[in-house]
């Protein structure tokens, strides 16, 4: 079964080399890329056009399907189920593990991105504001903060509006670290969590961990813990590099150091550096031509002034004095 022509998935633009800054958008993208569903993706999306004020949303003709669950249901019906290669036991385990991951990482994700005041004020708010059209960017990021309030109250047991010393962040960190340890043990040396085939669990784990691992927050205790799990780091980097190699985005300027070789660069980084070099070359040529044109103009001007001064029997004029002052 083929997706209807013109179907488009709308998501937030990425950062840190990822295809999206948002967990919900990222796992919706995983549905598409893991199953190789032929669909276009719009990253300059307006969440207010979804009808529910949220991203991601899938538009098929005049119909809009908002949120991961609705998008997954459409793809399942269109013949792109993500767990199609799993047997019955593996499908059950995938759902069980996914629910367990949700209970241990969802509150951490929402608290440290939207609930922790310094993280939200210095990083997260700006990320979402830059991807929301004016003037909605002034208030729209706060909707995620209000959502985080509910999530943390239910799963974390405290109110993010309380003073910071009353935030039980240690409890969230402890649960998240336990989850990461179990996931690392479950993955082992396998490519995917169920061996040689992808699953919804892979999409969910990647979407949580990739953002937590890549985002640059002032306070993010789980980031270093993930770094200590080399197989999970390889899992994140492999999916980012191999599956989203043409969709990763980073606003940070890349610089090529003396120790950096072409072999260590991703295709998107290499393309960026090549375009940057071409820009510098064009700018340099333009500067040389401008300097040459100015020098030629000065030479012609000096010849004209010298020739005209010989016709006046050595009389000094104010223009000649001004020219001497400029020289």
UniProtKB/TrEMBL annotation:
Keywords: Membrane, Mitochondrion, Mitochondrion outer membrane, Protein transport, Transport. Its main location: mitochondrion. It comes from the Eukaryota. Residues 25-145 form the Mitochondrial outer membrane transport complex Sam37/metaxin N-terminal domain. GO terms for cellular component: SAM complex. This is Metaxin. It comes from Drosophila willistoni (Fruit fly). Residues 176-239 form the Metaxin glutathione S-transferase domain.
